[in-house]
Amino acid sequence: MFFIMEKPLIFCLFLFYWHFLYALFTVEAPQSLYTVEYGNNVTMECTFPVHGKLEFRDLSVIWEKKDKLKKQVYALLQGKEDFESQDSDFKGRTKLFKENLNLGQSLLQITDVKLRDAGLYHCLIGYGGADYKAINLKVKAPYRSITQGVVSTGDNEWKLTCQSEGYPQAEVLWQNREYEDLTHKANTSYETGRDQLYRVTSTLTIKSRTDEIFFCIFWNKELQENTSAILHITDSVDGVVRTESRRFIGAILIVTALLGSVLIFMLSISKATANKDNRTPVDSSSIAKLPNDKDTCDCRYASFEEEELKSMQVEKT
Ligand SMILES: *[C@@H]1O[C@H](CO)[C@@H](O)[C@H](O)[C@H]1NC(C)=O
Ligand SMILES: *[C@@H]1O[C@H](CO)[C@@H](O)[C@H](O)[C@H]1NC(C)=O
Ligand SMILES: *[C@@H]1O[C@H](CO)[C@@H](O)[C@H](O)[C@H]1NC(C)=O
């Protein structure tokens, strides 16, 4: 009986020591997949055990990218940063947060992420023992800003164009006001633009009366993401109208609203002073003192009563 009980105990002790000896130094990756938008920054993390104060001179941190050829992304060797062997892809775009090393965190920031940065990374740490973990980086580029064009080709026919850049390749769907599918009437072309992005241009030639709207939808199947633009066919449409115009109209609205509130403010002030003036008999003479050329300018801010007075004044002279 005694003999039988002892066996598992020894086994447990063995397991404990085995774990202690071989798993003492382990690197962990709290997050094994990062998805980042093209042009943004990403900070990838792996952790390692630090007991007590970190001995910087004993620490080596290497981040590699596992392409066909291994690429060095970042290296800190025995406490010293080494940019000599850094791959040109990453020149000037990496930063290791040194203060976090004390906490056993290897945080690598890659700025201005490119499409070619996507792939598998290894985070290697040497500190007494050595270990590594793999981390995946995905890069996406939504078709965010759509440039649109509406051109009349005469005879109630219109050429509608939508263009945008993104990744991966998107389909362009077309719909009218009733959400009928017009995609089969459109022509979509794909070019490789800057930094591996696709420049997608789609053209729909269609007969339509004015005051109609059409939609172009960029469908990024892989990202399950849709972005769309509304194209208006109006009488005044001539040449290219851009999506930026919406922002422009927004700005105009804001400016108009601001001017409007200033106007109302001025009106209320002038009304208040006019009311004050009304109680004194110098009312019309004070207005008459205004020089003629200034009249037109001041008119806009004067109350209606004042305007009437002024026109009467002009008629009299
Ligand atoms: C990326 O990081 C750099 C440097 O830390 C900073 O200047 C820049 O604004 C960041 N860009 C974005 C999109 O957050
Ligand atoms: C699309 O463009 C190609 C080349 O410009 C042209 O040959 C084709 O007829 C066009 N198709 C449609 C549906 O407009
Ligand atoms: C995107 O739009 C297409 C066509 O309207 C639709 O079939 C698809 O389900 C939409 N996808 C998402 C994610 O909204």
Please specify the SSE layout and strand pairing.
Blueprint: H1 2-22, E1 33-37, E2 42-47, E3 60-66, E4 70-77, E5 80-81, E6 94-96, E7 105-110, E8 119-127, E9 129-140, E10 147-154, E11 157-166, E12 171-176, E13 186-192, E14 198-207, E15 212-220, E16 225-233, H2 244-279, H3 283-288, H4 292-299, H5 304-316
Parallel strand pairs: 1-9
Antiparallel strand pairs: 2-7, 3-4, 3-8, 4-5, 6-7, 8-9, 10-11, 11-14, 12-15, 13-14, 15-16
The chain binds 2-acetamido-2-deoxy-beta-D-glucopyranose (NAG) (3 copies).
Describe, in plain words, how this protein is organized in 3D.
The protein is of the alpha+beta class and 317 residues long. The chain has 3 domains: 8-140, Sandwich (Immunoglobulin-like), CATH 2.60.40; 147-234, Immunoglobulins (Immunoglobulin-like); 236-267 and 287-305, no CATH class. The protein has helices at residues 2-22, 244-279, 283-288, 292-299, 304-316; strands at 33-37, 42-47, 60-66, 70-77, 80-81, 94-96, 105-110, 119-127, 129-140, 147-154, 157-166, 171-176, 186-192, 198-207, 212-220, 225-233. The protein has a 6-stranded mixed β-sheet with strand order 1-9-8-3-4-5, with no helix packed on it. Residues 40-41, 111 line the site of one 2-acetamido-2-deoxy-beta-D-glucopyranose (NAG).
